[in-house]
Amino acid sequence: MSKIVLVGVNHAGTACANTLLDNYPEHELVIFDRNNNISYLGCGTALWIGRQIESPDGLFYASKDVFEAKNATVHIETEVTHIDFKEKKVTAKKKDGSEVTESYDKLVLATGSLPIQPKIDGVNLENVQSVKLFQDAVAANARMEDPTIKSVAVVGAGYIGVEIAEAMHRRGKKAYLFDVRDTSLCGYYDPELTKDMDDNLQKNGVELHLGESVLSIDGETKVTGITTDKGTYSVDMVVLAIGFVPNTSLGRDHLKTFGKSAAYLVDRHQQTSDSDVYAIGDCATVFSNALQDTAYIALATNAVRSGIVAAHNIAGTVIESNGVQGSNGISIFGYNMVSTGLTLRAATEAGFKAMVTEFEDLQRPAFMKENHSVKIRIVYDGETRRILGAQMASYEDISMGIHMFSLAIEQKVTIDHLKLVDIFFLPHFNQPYNYITMAAISAK
Ligand SMILES: Cc1cc2nc3c(=O)[nH]c(=O)nc-3n(C[C@H](O)[C@H](O)[C@H](O)COP(=O)(O)OP(=O)(O)OC[C@H]3O[C@@H](n4cnc5c(N)ncnc54)[C@H](O)[C@@H]3O)c2cc1C
Ligand SMILES: NC(=O)c1ccc[n+]([C@@H]2O[C@H](COP(=O)([O-])OP(=O)(O)OC[C@H]3O[C@@H](n4cnc5c(N)ncnc54)[C@H](O)[C@@H]3O)[C@@H](O)[C@H]2O)c1
C-alpha cells in the first residue's frame, strides 16, 4: 500500500482521484485544493453569462463528499505552500491559517494553469477580470446585472475571448473584441476559415479590433476606457483572455520544465524528472502526435486523460498516454468550427514542408431541404504525406468528423490513404462524393 498525495483537484485531479479510488482502494489518497469548489466546467461560463443556460448548477460533476465516501482524505480551501521533495513532505495552509503537513510515497501535481496577466497599466482597476474560476463567472455574471456597465472590452480573441464576447453581447452589452493578431482564433484555424468567424461575430454585433495592441486600461478606480496603438475606446468593463500559463511555482526549482511555457516536463506515464512525482493537466506537458514532440496544450480533455494515465501508473498498471492532437471546437451564434493538430502556419513554423488541401460543399445532396455549406482544410507534410491537422467550419453540426482526423494524426495516416477510406453515404447525412474524400483527392 502506498500513500498518494494529490495537489489540485479540478479536472485532471478529479480524473486521477476517481481512477485511484475506484480501481485501487488499497492505496491511501490525500487530496489538497485551495479552492472551495471542485470540477467547475469553465466552458459553462459563457453559456451561463449569455443565458444559453439558466443556471451554473449543472456545471460541477465531483465533490469533496464523493471523494470522502470513497475513503479519501480531502483538504479543500487548503493551499499547498511548500513541498520538501527530499523528505517527501507537503505543507499546506488552511483557510483559518493553521498548517497541515502530509508525507507521501507518490505525489501528483495537478495545479493547473493561471490566466496570463498583461503587463499594462490598469489591470487592477475595478471591473477588470479574468474568467477562469467559478468565482470569476459569478463576478462577471453580477456585472452583467449592473445597468451602469453598458460596454465591455474583451482582450484576446482566442477561445475564451470569442465565447465571452458573444455572451456579453447576448446579455445586451456592447462588446468590443481586441487581439494583437489579424484574425480571431488564430491559434486553431487558418485565416481562410477565421475570416468567416470574424464576419459572423461582426454580423451579429460584436465590434472587432484585430491587429491592435492594448496599451492600457484607463480609469481612476473603475474602468472607463481602453487604449490601444490605434485608438481609445470608452468601455465600462474589461475581460482579459490572452491565454494560460502553467501554475508550477511549487515544483519548478526541483523538477525539469519545458521551454517557454515552463510546464512540468513529463513522460508518456505522466512521470516528472523525479520518479516519485507525477504531473497532470494544465501544469504539465503533453506529447503532440502532430509534432512528434513535447508541447504545451491546456485543455480539459487532455487534463482528464492525463489524470487517468497517472493514476494507473502510480498504482502499478503501466500504461502509456496516446499523446494528443489538441482537438478542439467552438460554436458562436450558431457557426461551428472544429480543429485538430496543426494549422498551416503552426506546421510551417515547426519546420514541416507543410501543404494544405481544401474543399467546400453542401453537407447533403442539393435535393435535400435542410442543408448548409461545409468548409474543410487538411494540413499535411509534403515530404512524408502524413496528415498534420484538419479544420472544419459550418452552420451544420460537423463536430464528429474531426475525431477521425484526430485518430488519423495519432496513427500517422497519410493524405493519400484518406482518398480511399470507406465513408458511408446517406442523403440525410452527407454526399456520395463527400468533402472529406474530395479534399483528400484534390491534394497535390
Ligand atoms: C472559460 C473557460 C472555458 C474553457 N472551455 C474549455 C472547453 O470547452 N474545452 C476544454 O477542453 N477546455 C476548456 N477550458 C480549459 C480547461 O478548463 C482547462 O484546460 C482545465 O481546467 C485544466 O484542468 P486542470 O485540472 O489541469 O487545471 P485547473 O482547472 O487549473 O485546476 C487546478 C486546480 O489546482 C488547484 N491548485 C492550484 N495550486 C494549488 C495549491 N498550491 N494548493 C492547492 N491547490 C492548488 C486549483 O485550486 C485548481 O482547483 C476552458 C477554460 C476556461 C477558463
Ligand atoms: N472551446 C474550447 O475548447 C476552449 C474554450 C475556452 C478555453 N479553452 C482553452 O483554455 C486556454 C485559455 O484560453 P484563452 O482564450 O485564454 O487562450 P487562447 O490561446 O485560445 O487565446 C489567446 C488569444 O489572446 C491573444 N493575445 C495574446 N496576447 C495578447 C495581448 N497582449 N493583447 C491582445 N491579445 C493577445 C492571442 O493572439 C490569442 O488569440 C486555451 O488553451 C484554450 O484552448 C478551450
UniProtKB/TrEMBL annotation:
GO molecular function, one term: oxidoreductase activity
Catalytically driven reaction(s): 2 NADH + O2 + 2 H(+) = 2 NAD(+) + 2 H2O
Cofactor(s) the record lists: FAD
Family annotation (PROSITE patterns): PROKAR_LIPOPROTEIN
Name this polypeptide is given: NADH oxidase
Organism listed in the record: Entomospira nematocerorum
Keywords, in A-Z order: FAD, Flavoprotein, NAD, Oxidoreductase, Redox-active center
Superkingdom assignment: Bacteria
PANTHER family tied to this protein: NAD(P)H SULFUR OXIDOREDUCTASE (COA-DEPENDENT) (PTHR43429:SF1), PYRIDINE NUCLEOTIDE-DISULFIDE OXIDOREDUCTASE DOMAIN-CONTAINING (PTHR43429)
Residue span(s) of domain Pyridine nucleotide-disulphide oxidoreductase dimerisation: 334-430
EC number: 1.6.3.4
InterPro entries: FAD-bd_OxRdtase, FAD/NAD-bd_sf, FAD/NAD-binding_dom, FAD/NAD-linked_Rdtase_dimer_sf, NOXase, Pyr_nucl-diS_OxRdtase_dimer
Residue ranges occupied by any FAD/NAD(P)-binding domain in the UniProt entry: 3-307
Sequence similarity: Belongs to the class-III pyridine nucleotide-disulfide oxidoreductase family.
